[in-house]
Amino acid sequence: MDARRQTNGKPLDDDFPAFYAERSRGLLLFFARRTFDAESAFDLTAETFAQALSSKRHYRGTTDEEAAAWLYGIARHVLLRFFRKGKAERRALALLGVELPTVTEDQIERIEQLADLEVLRLDMADALKDLNEDQRHALELRVVRELSYAEVAMQLEISEESARARVSRGLRALAERFDRSTFQEEAP
Amino acid sequence: MSTEPDDLPSLTALGERLAEASSKRRESLTGRSARPAFFALLILATLVGLGFTAPGKAVTSALSDLVGGDVGGPPTQPSQVGAFDPASDQIVLAAGETADGSPFEIVAFRSERQIVAGDEGAVCVNIEFFAVRSGSEGSCYSGELRYGGVCCAGLTVSDRGSAVPRVEGEVRPGIARVAVTYVTTGGEEQTTDALIGMITPEFAKRLEVDNPSGKFIASIPDLAVSDDSFSADRPRFPQGPSHPIDISVFNEAGELVETETIRPAIHFERKAQGLENKRKRFDTFRGECRIEDAIRRDNPQCEELLPPSLPLDSENGREPQHSDQRTAQLDRRDLP
């Protein structure tokens, strides 16, 4: 597809199904590679598209490329808030009245496979060395050992909210580092 | 169009649902296109009526007569949110009591503490259960809530303040009613209106804040909770409501502007775990040290009890506000 295809400024109106089909998978993997969590990645993808639909009147671009850049701009905000709060918001989804479909175990595995999370986890183990001890320990439990937040909280003897905050801050620190390479490759 | 095989049917289903919802919303907005001017006038009339007429004032006075301090006056006891020291008057926005008779005040003040560097300070809105020690729940924010009618709504079950479950959150100016619908243990659907404490333009002027908002609280007694194995060992912290809790938000014109849902398990399982961890921590200190003593390291005996993982605010030695209540406010600044 021509990346500069004219969309008449309405990629999220008349052309939404095509735009979604074109961009949803890439966006899902974009989130998966930064959260190391397929379910969170799915939630973030859904919220990003919902926010895009809710604020589409502000979009002023005319090409697919510009629409994708706009979408990823929203995605970065959504991701930043996820890092801050430790959980995905569903505000725009609620406004639209969209119920999230169930993501089955085999689909979670497929997302992890597509996102190369196994490889990234190995890379992360090395990158963790530069984080502070609290964040490193939290990320090791959550991302490398794949424990739930409740289990991480129990292990660290802190509240689950604090566990989420530590993991989020650690992920954000790593994401900033990864931005120099993978982030810019994927995000237009 | 993508030619990828449909190995992620959930992603496909999501796209269909989004497209359908967007289409419905577009039709709905098109149908209402002739009405905004009328409703703008109606809102103005409602505000004038409530703010300046004698009946409007009477409603405010009656509310404050129930319990606690006067609306617009100082709180029964000073309010604070963590390390956010008040830098203004403290104003009671509303006062009420929960279903078990626990009195509370919704209190607002301005703090000069910055949530992020470069901020002009923060606005703090607290729910103060002034009859009990440490019965304060609050949050501070900066920036403007521009998105949706309510923010950060959540279900709280705590033995501090009131033992009755309650739904709390923040509201945007212009919101007149927040209705909370839940299912009781008898299986009946119950709807209750939340009490809203709003920073009115008058209060905003007194507090010298540019981005006023409010807070709502709804006491929901007899909430039906799940009784699975998770909750068996945690009678005070069950897994969560057995049915979704719906929050409906209305503006002054009586229009429904937003709905939110607190879902069983997903929301509350995590919340319950956090509460239980917090309770364990308080149990450790009970009877020997106050948690504040330990955190401030005033008492060496208490310091020994301080969990090594408990984060400290290096600036003033107080426990930092690391709950989502604080960080949630940051969201208001950077919405696309």
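qc> The longest helix of chain A spans residues 160-186.
qc> done
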